[in-house]
Amino acid sequence: MTKMTLGSYPHMLGFEQLERLLERTAKSSEGYPPFNIEQTSDHSYRITLAVAGFSEADLSITVEDRQLVIRGRQSDDGGDRVFLHRGIAARQFQRSFVLADGVEVGEAIMENGLLHVDLTLSRPEKVVQTIQIRKG
Fold first, then answer.
1. What distance in Å separates the CA atoms of residue 115 and residue 58, rounded to the nearest whole number?
2. Do residues 104 and 122 lie in contact, with contact meaning Cβ atoms separated by under 8 Å?
3. In a domain? residue 4
4. What burial class does residue 34 get, using C-beta atoms within 10 Å of its C-beta: 0-12 exposed, 13-18 middle, 19+ buried?
5. How far does Cα 26 stand from its chain's mean position?
6. Is the Cα dihedral 17, 46, 30, 91 positive or negative?
7. Domain count across the chain
8. pLDDT tens column, 22-75
9. Both 43 and 85 in a single domain?
10. Whether residues 42 and 9 fall in one domain
11. CA 52: distance to chain centroid?
12. Residues 16 and 36 in one domain
């Protein structure tokens, strides 16, 4: 059986990029750090990541090719410390979220070991375009 792609449907013109975004999102399904996504109003969302042990300097937030990318890298300052048990590791991570057209990243807030990233969805106004038909 042949795998159907969005590009193989004649009425779905220009959606090849959507298919690539879906494949890229499916590949980034690591479970660390845990996160929540909540709808805070009809046109806004908040992503919250549990980043206990990370400071603001250890985190970076970028938007790359319609993806929100949140990275964390802790510096290992335990050079002269002796651990009898080390259950809290200095672990790096990268979390990616695909953004739809019109989604803007707002502010990021660190609070009690949680990183909140606010997103807003701006609805473009509807445009009706009339195409003139000319004789050939």
1. 12
2. yes
3. yes
4. exposed
5. 12
6. positive
7. 2
8. 666 665 556 889 999 999 999 999 999 999 889 999 999 999 988 999 999 987
9. yes
10. no
11. 19
12. no
